[in-house]
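Ticket #4471: structure export looks truncated?
Reporter: QA, pipeline team
Priority: medium

Steps to reproduce: submit the single chain below to the structure queue and open the exported record.
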Amino acid sequence: MTAVLPAQRDAEHVDGWELVDRAQAGDRAAFGALYEMHYGLVLMFLVRRVGPGPEAADLAQDVFVRALRGIERIEYRGQAVGAWLITIARNLAMDHFKSGRVRRMVLQGDVYQTPTPDPDPTPDHVAVMADSSRRVRAALALLSGKQRQVLVLRYLNELSITETAAVMNIGEGAVKALTFRAVRTVRRHAQDLGLS
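Actual output as written to the record:
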């Protein structure tokens, strides 16, 4: 993959990526500025996942620890810096629930039960999941970079419109318009992809 020069980056991502460039060069204040710029967004994302309280705040801190450890390896790929941080946050939230420290309870009738994943999925289930995954990838391939990013943030990462706007550094109206156009494109090609 060829590196994208700072001059080629979208104007809306320049501030965050200039800070990443400076942090990669050893500027600690630049990483501090990234922290200040994105901490609220990361915390809001985690509060929606794990609930308000110290767990969300601890996970938010962990996001920036991981980001600092990985700052040398990150490179511009057409997305805002916030998208990288939200990906780290999403992974940490999933790890948090997988760790066994947290047991989510689901009301089923009159009894609370802890949901358990199927430890031994059937071959049919595996085949259906693989086919679904292929179709989703095919649908995303039809979209422009920004349309793909908005669908991933909104539906796969389950961000709100406000959170998506903050990650992409665009207005909420632009998020709604991009989402509408992306869904329309996928619907237009749904039959060809076997989605309808």
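Status: closed, not a bug. The export was complete when the record was re-opened. Leaving a note from the reviewer for reference: The first helix runs from residue 14 to 24.
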